[in-house]
Amino acid sequence: MAQKDASVAELTKQFESSTAVLLTEYRGLTVAELKELRNTIRQDAQYAVVKNTLTKIAANNAGITELDDELKGPSAVAFVHGDPVAVAKGLRAFAKAHPLLVVKGGYFDGAALSPEEVGKLADLESREVLLAKVAGLLKASTSKAASLFQAPLSKTVRTVEALREKQETAA
Known about the structure:
- By secondary structure, the chain is α+β, with helices and mostly antiparallel strands.
- It folds into 2 domains: 2-124, Alpha-Beta Plaits; 126-171.
- Helices cover 61% and strands 16% of the residues.
- It is built from 6 helices and 5 strands.
- A 5-stranded antiparallel sheet has the order 2-3-1-4-5.
- Helix 1 (2-17) crosses helix 3 (52-61) and helix 4 (84-97) packs across helix 5 (115-123).
- The longest helix has 44 residues, at 127-170.
- The chain is elongated.
- The protein starts with a helix and ends with a helix.
- 27% of the residues are buried.
- This is Large ribosomal subunit protein uL10.
- It comes from Microbacterium betulae.
């Protein structure tokens, strides 16, 4: 009983500290394949095979009740501590290569995710790419604004120069 309590406490801590949680069914995957999957998403998530009953209790302790229906059959959880998009992409890529891995759903930003929504999450670009695009837009906007501010000044200089040349030729 003490071991189960410790497991529930550890799982509860994982749920509370994760930015997202993605559930999978791993039935039929070998230990080597599970190790490969863990290595694939290691940078952003911890992937663990879990007992459904203990996981339900831990999720409920963390205030997450939306996963109860998904915790059936052999389940494994990706506790995301980094970029959820990168983990969703990693799971999708692994599932393409190993069709026995089935994404059952997840929990992100206070809401349950269906398998389709996890797929849409995987379709998004990573946080770094989005930040780079925003930075590029800001840089383009500031350089465009600078050229707009310089345009009247350079036009005025050209006009004055043209008038000066006209007066010199007239004289």
